[in-house]
Model the fold of this input.
Amino acid sequence: MNDIIEQEQILIDQGLIYCGVDEAGAGPLCGDVVAAAVILDPKNPIAELNDSKKLSEKKREMLFPIIKEKALAYCIARCSAQEIDEINILNARMLAMKRAIDGLSVTAKHALIDGNRLPKDLACPGTAIVKGDALVAAISAASVLAKVERDHDMYELDKLYPEYGLAKHKGYPTKAHLEALQIHGPTEIYRKTYGPVKKWLDEQTA
Done:
């Protein structure tokens, strides 16, 4: 942890603009995987930032507009369910994060990325940080933006497909979701390479 804090401090001391990057939505059976990149303003800190999974939904929703307002720059990007099926979820996660970095209105000189892998062909040097969303404020901010944006996606999809209960489980394979999938089958928003969805499709052609 001290090494991570040291590394971030070096970037600050060198006056390098850096972004934090994270993604949300690798596990759900449907919808996009969403990534965010955030460049925080050191002169305008945001209180109560943390790993989005450790924050209540109410707190995440409260922080969402504050991060957008106070950040020097942010970008939210995604990969669709179709892209996930084409290139697999790991590559889709990496691509969504690269798109978020590339989409920043302010060019980052370094990217601090949650996890243990770096996307290919980054426009700047990057450092992968395991549990970075709990250690680096910029990654925490990115995790909140990605998580809330994806939740909002699910609320909108729930209006189109109310029979699946997406607003409640956000697309994760809960018992209720799997039962709804078995009854209604997958729509175009589903990831056809994911186990329960693939199983249903295979059964229809057996």
